[in-house]
Amino acid sequence: MHIRNATLADGRQRDVRVVGERIQSVAESVETREGERVVDATGKRLLPGMVDMHVHLRQPGFGHKETWRTGTRSAAAGGVTTVVDQPNTDPPTVDGTAFDRKRGFADDATVDFGLNGGVTGSWDPDSLFDRPLCALGEVFLADSTGEMGIDEALFVEALECADGLPVTVHAEDESLFEEAARERSDADAWSAYRRADAEIAATRRACRLAAERDRRIHIAHASTPESVDAAARAGSTCEVTPHHILLSRRDLGDLGTHGRMNPPLRRERHRRKLFDRVADGTVDVVATDHAPHTREEKATGIWEAPSGVPGVETALPLLLGEARQGRLGFDRIRDLTARNPAAILGLPEKGTITAGTHADLVLVDPAATGEIRATDLHTSCEWTPFEGHEAVFPEWTMCRGQVLYRRETDEFEPLQGENVRRQRGGS
């Protein structure tokens, strides 16, 4: 394929040639070869595919919520070409046997993927680290979906076993949860219960414990500006989610229990400060924490509803909508969604539009805005917390040189997603 006159994230206009799975050249002008498919990208943006380093694809154990097939098709439709799945499935991915079982489900992936290993009191690091892990974590410092919360001693053990892998941390301190909030039944009670101070304290402690052992940690789904600042001061990386930078507690009146997630939504003034840190470069990554549950599961009381919201298909389109409004630059979106996560995970073939890298590309018309509608999305949970939000969806998404999805026809092409991590040990 010869992509002509594309505008890259930094504003440069370039021709891009794709041969096989890789980008062969990026230049001001490329001569078209005989038989080459030509795409005129004049007036459009060509971005690297999103590397979503935090998704929950629910298999094994919870395929009624999402499958690898539906979740990765949803990813492709949203411009995501690599997903990293978290370990809180059933069984949890805490030993080699569980890893191998999940790897079988991942054969249904439409995009490339990584598999993270988890930590519980019954984990088996020897067999787990013999598998091609993408990262360790998310390591839960408080219980969430899957009840994988661990204490400080086990967290230290995990850090010491990390074997050079990044450790992704879900940082909340259960001892600081506000028990009085449990007497309430309104949708905001969950935010009052899992209070911001619990996240801030756990983030600071996790960063300190990692620094003492010279280990790399990555703070998952930071929901407070103080947590982002703590990670930055410690030299740790961090991610935020679209729901934490675009939604706040004032939206819970409309969302109800569909707005329950861990960590929960924060006050509007905190949301604005968090967004500021996304825009100014303090935040390293936007990841989705795509955590689907069915409508029926969410449509219950605030203390019974499961935590989590879908988001893998809407993250990049929402950020592109922010660029359309002048609140984010395209180069910042590229760094947040592709370049930085690929660098943190050690994936040099992903995240950039450079000769020799995988042709993971997304073509976008910045003027083609529309409203998000759950009925148009491809996740099997059939709802979104962003109903009616303005977004810019990709015209097409390419992974390793193959166009996976075209929005005009709403059609997917078959591709066998590959594990982005090379083999470790003999597995």
What's the shape?
Answer: globular
Give the rounded overall mean pLDDT.
95
Q: CATH homologous superfamily of the domain at 49-345? A: Metal-dependent hydrolases
Low-confidence stretches: 423-427
What is the name of the CATH architecture of the domain at 49-345? Alpha-Beta Barrel
Distance between the termini: 35 Å
Short overview:
This protein is an alpha/beta fold and 427 residues long. The protein has 13 helices and 19 strands. The chain has a 5-stranded antiparallel β-sheet with strand order 5-14-17-18-19. It has a 5-stranded parallel β-sheet with strand order 9-10-11-12-13. A 4-stranded mixed β-sheet has the order 3-2-1-4, with no helix packed on it.
Describe, in plain words, how this protein is organized in 3D.
This protein has 427 residues and is α/β, with parallel strands linked by helices. The chain has a domain of 297 residues: Metal-dependent hydrolases (TIM Barrel). The protein is built from 13 helices and 19 strands. Strands 5-14-17-18-19 form a 5-stranded antiparallel β-sheet. Helix 6 runs parallel beside helix 7. The C terminus is likely disordered.
